Amino acid sequence: GTRLTLSTKGREFITDTKLDWKTMKWMNLPTGEVFVAPVEDSLNGKLVCDMAIGGIGKLRQPVEVTVKNGRVKTVSSQDNEHLQRVKQTFATDDWSDVVGEFAFGINPKATFVEEFLEAEKILGTVHVAFGENMDMPGGKNPSKNHMDLLISEPTVKVTKENGETVTVLEKGYFRK
User: Fold this and answer.
1) Per residue in 141-159, is it b (16+ CB within 10 Å) or e — as a string?
2) 4, 28, 138, 173: which sits with the fewest CB atoms below 10 Å from its CB?
3) What are the residues facing 49 on neighbouring strands?
4) Beta strand 71-77 pairing with 63-68
5) 137 dihedral zone (left: phi>0; alpha: psi -120 to 50; beta)
């Protein structure tokens, strides 16, 4: 399965749970995610996307992405059509295969529908995006693209600055 490490040092997490009509910032419906722009060269490991990909939709077969120092190294899938579309998107520009976002879905009413903006908000999911993150606090990825990969039932562990590791999400359930 998925096994990734990344750093958010110096980056601000944004909680998208309401509409800000004054600034029109983070106008994304439905609301329901907590996201951050990870340090661009910090993502390492293997990501197994088993639900959906933004711009592609629901997956027929998982898509596996191996990442080193924030950049995609390999992509594989049994579904050749989806595989080719993902590879093509990662080749859009010099930054499209560099991590841009890490997010938790926190909307208990979001469902797995074709509209990816709702699917990525499903409570207990995680999505990792590659590409543009310039509008996120601290983001430095200027890609013309932003592709989200949605993962079901993840376990997320956070290592605090003091070295203590805390499980935040376990098999898709938030820990108290």
Assistant:
1) bebebbbbbbbbbbbbeee
2) 173
3) 63
4) antiparallel
5) beta
* pLDDT of 21 over the 90 cut: no
DSSP H helices, 50-107, are 80-90
The bridge status of strand 14-16 relative to strand 156-159 is unpaired
Mark out the alpha helices in the chain (DSSP H runs): 80-90, 116-119
Whole-model pTM: value is: 0.93
As a whole number of angstroms, the distance between CA 44 and CA 70 comes to 6
Nearest to 154 by CA among 130, 175, 133: 175
Using one digit for the tens of pLDDT, what is the confidence trace for 48-74? 999 999 999 999 999 999 999 999 999
Q: Where are the alpha helices (DSSP H) in 25-121?
A: 80-90, 116-119
The structural domain count of the chain equals: 1
Buried b (16+ CB within 10 A) or exposed e, 101-133: bbbbbbbeebeeeeebebbbbbebbbbbbbbbb
Domain that holds residue 94: 3-174
Copy the structure tokens of residue 149.
């990969």
Q: What are the tens digits of pLDDT across the range 64-105?
A: 999 999 999 999 999 999 999 999 999 999 999 999 999 999
